[in-house]
Amino acid sequence: MRSRRRILTGDRTTGKLHLGHYVGSLKSRVELQDEYETFILLADVQALTTHFEEPELINSSILDVTMDNLSVGLDPEKVTFVQQSQITSIAELTVFYSMIVSVNQLRHNPTIKTEAANYGYEDLSYGFLGYPVSQTADISFINADLVPVGEDQVPHIELSRKIIRKFNKLYGTNITVPRAKLSEVGRLAGLDGNAKMGKSMGNAIYLSDSPEVVWQHVRKAVTDTSRVHAHMEGHPEVCNVYKYHQVFNPGETDEIHKECTSAALSCFACKQRLNEVLNNLLEPMRERRAYYENNIDIVKDLIHEGSKKANAIGNENLERIKEKMHILI
Ligand code: SF4
What we know:
By secondary structure, the chain is mostly helical. The protein has two domains: about 5-190 and about 295-325, HUPs (Rossmann fold), CATH 3.40.50.620; about 210-285, Tyrosyl-Transfer RNA Synthetase (Orthogonal Bundle), CATH 1.10.240. Helices cover about 55% and strands about 10% of the residues. It contains 14 helices and five strands. It has helices at about 20-30, 45-50, 55-70, 90-100, 105, 110-120, 125-130, 130-140, 155-170, 210-220, 240-250, 255-260, 265-295, 295-325, and strands spanning about 5-10, 35-45, 80-85, 145-150, 180. The strands form two sheets. A three-stranded parallel β-sheet has the order 1-2-3. Strands 4-5 form a two-stranded parallel sheet.
């Protein structure tokens, strides 16, 4: 009998993590690590669905993503890091689940739909089409109860729940049907005005960025474009810098709103305030990260040991599943 409920969360290993990842997921991981037994999946197989031509990037990102998670304050004594490709039960469960999911169910998944609308089905790989299935295996190999997700991921979890319910009904298994936990802050927009922060957009502020790089992004941020002189009144509701104050500096937003709309605060000063807030947040992360960068063997051990532990749990669960499926002789 488990003493605590389990969370499965994680990141694709396609590069370092940025502020969007922090507000969307990492922050809540830190808050939940005492309450839940937390497994952080380093999703290197899932990374292959889009980055199969960049194995070196995926490899180096396994360490980067682990260090990013540690840098935000996840305690290696409390959480388990799991390298997805090392977990054989995930691969096997993916095959089993793929038998009971229709191609149509996958085609209706919003992520697949968008991809197909943009590029057509012609170049869509079998792996990409089936990634909600492998995600179901990621969640269920350790019988996770809770999966923290952004809004765009909710349909994936819905499909996972359907797959697991159907599987349990078919074979009499007792695989946990997971619940989605929506992140409080939705998608973080870019300071440049782009709806999303991301590496491909060139607007990402990485958790490991230096103060100089952070300032470069903040300095260039798009504000209220109608406010062409500092003596003009501003409109915070259309300003990207203000949106960031709301997320990262909620205690000062009323004051900033007042000073902006009365032209008492210049955009430059407002950006300086945001820059200070962001660097105050990031500085302890940089320090923790520097420790792990200087002790990279500790990071590798955490990944090896965590994967070993998770593999043992997954194999035990899979054994029970196979028994129920009558495929053990
Ligand atoms: S003062 Fe701040 S909130 Fe107002 S428009 Fe300038 S940057 Fe935006």
